[in-house]
């Protein structure tokens, strides 16, 4: 089991110092083992790459993806990869050297690398795709498959200097139907609200007056934009999210921003890692007509 392990120190300049060290560990005790898992431990979460069958290229893409996600989450581009001797390294060199430091200046020191992280992600390359799973307090909450192509696309549209996806820029020509993005400060807050009940309760709700499954125009969708009758479009699919309103961890107010609109960009601005369809499958009422 290989652990790429970030541990953290604070230097004199109060900079967060994540040490990414490819040593051979058994999780939580420093013993040698076989190549199995690449773990990346940061402040808020632990990322594990199950890379028994992964090529170097796949490992590189996954690491890139995690670092991008971390930049996005921390709203920073200030992550530096350095060698033991403080020389700047590329990610490729890091993988080859199997020893690298990650610097994230200006982030508060809150990590205890041994403590149980609330959020854990695992990545497993399988048949040309990556199976990404999310666990919250040990319980699996999401499972998504991402292709390498999708990741490469995301990486190329990721604006390294602002931590924002370039493709998320509002297009004013279509802005009437596309829910507008929110300022970065708002995204950084990431407040969760108290929801009515769990996903199970939402799934079990009786569904009445469900419209027929068909293709809808943007205009038709836009009429369903009031509390008690809310539709939205996510990745070309139309959902009646009236019932979901009370179960959205980000709250009703945020969800209403996508009411009667295409919320895909807004959705990705806040949580591109969430598999929206998995949550809303029951309220999938059709596709958007182009
Ligand atoms: C329409 C489909 C949507 C679904 C199925 C959905 C689902 C979710 C889920 C599952 C979470 C918890 C995420 C986690 O624990 O990592 C979440 C959180 C959140 N969502 Fe949404 N969401 C939707 C739309 C939106 C939109 C349009 C916004 C726009 C402003 C938004 C804003 C938020 C915020 C602020 C949080 C809390 C912070 C966070 O967990 O990052 N969501 N949503």
How would you sum up this structure, described in words?
This protein has helices spanning 56-74, 91-97, 148-157, 184-189, 199-204, 218-222, 252-256, 264-271, 276-280; strands at 2-10, 16-24, 37-41, 45-50, 80-82, 99-104, 119-126, 129-136, 139-147, 158-159, 164-165, 214-216, 225-226, 229-234, 237-240, 284-288. Strand 3 (37-41) and strand 4 form a beta hairpin. 24% of the residues lie in helices and 30% in strands. The relative contact order is 0.11. With 290 residues, it is α+β, with helices and mostly antiparallel strands. It has two domains: 2-165, no CATH class; 170-288, Cytochrome b5-like heme/steroid binding domain (Flavocytochrome B2, Chain A, domain 1). The strands form four sheets. It has a five-stranded mixed sheet with strand order 3-4-7-8-9. Strands 12-16-15-14-13 form a five-stranded mixed sheet. The chain has nine helices and 16 strands. The N and C termini lie far apart (49 Å). The longest helix is centred in the N-terminal third of the chain and has 19 residues, at 56-74. Helix 1 (56-74) packs across helix 3. Bound molecules: protoporphyrin IX containing FE (HEM). Protoporphyrin IX containing FE binds at residues 190, 192, 232, 234, 241, 248-250, 254-255, 257-258, 263, 266-267, 270-271, 274, 276, 279-280. Residues 190, 192, 232, 234, 241, 248-250, 254-255, 257-258, 263, 266-267, 270-271, 274, 276, 279-280 line the site of protoporphyrin IX containing FE (HEM).
């Amino acid at each position: 089991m290989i652990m790429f392990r970030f541990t953290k120190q604070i230097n004199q300049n109060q900079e967060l110092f994540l040490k990414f060290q490819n040593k051979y560990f058994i999780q939580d005790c420093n013993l040698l083992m076989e190549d199995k898992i690449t773990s990346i431990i940061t402040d808020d979460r632990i990322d594990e790459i199950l890379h028994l069958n992964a090529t170097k290229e796949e490992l590189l893409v996954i690491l890139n993806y995690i670092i991008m996600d971390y930049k996005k989450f921390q709203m920073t581009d200030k992550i530096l990869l350095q060698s033991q001797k403080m020389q700047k390294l590329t990610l490729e060199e890091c993988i080859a050297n199997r020893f690298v430091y990650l610097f994230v200046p200006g982030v508060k020191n809150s990590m205890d690398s041994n403590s149980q992280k609330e959020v854990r992600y695992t990545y497993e390359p399988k048949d040309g795709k990556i199976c990404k799973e999310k666990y919250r307090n040990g319980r699996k909450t999401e499972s998504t498959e991402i292709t390498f192509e999708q990741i490469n696309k995301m990486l190329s549209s990721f604006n390294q200097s602002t931590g924002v996806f370039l493709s998320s820029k509002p297009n004013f020509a279509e802005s009437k139907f596309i829910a507008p993005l929110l300022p970065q400060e708002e995204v950084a807050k990431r407040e969760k609200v108290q929801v009515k009940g769990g996903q199970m309760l939402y799934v079990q709700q009786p569904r009445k007056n469900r419209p027929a499954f068909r293709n809808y125009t943007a205009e038709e969708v836009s009429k369903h934009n009031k509390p008690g009758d809310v539709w939205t479009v996510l990745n070309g699919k139309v959902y009646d999210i009236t019932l979901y309103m009370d179960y959205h961890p980000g709250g009703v107010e945020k969800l209403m921003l996508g009411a009667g609109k295409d919320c895909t960009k807004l959705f990705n601005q806040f949580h591109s890692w969430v598999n929206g369809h998995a949550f809303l499958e029951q309220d999938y009422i059709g596709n958007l007509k182009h």
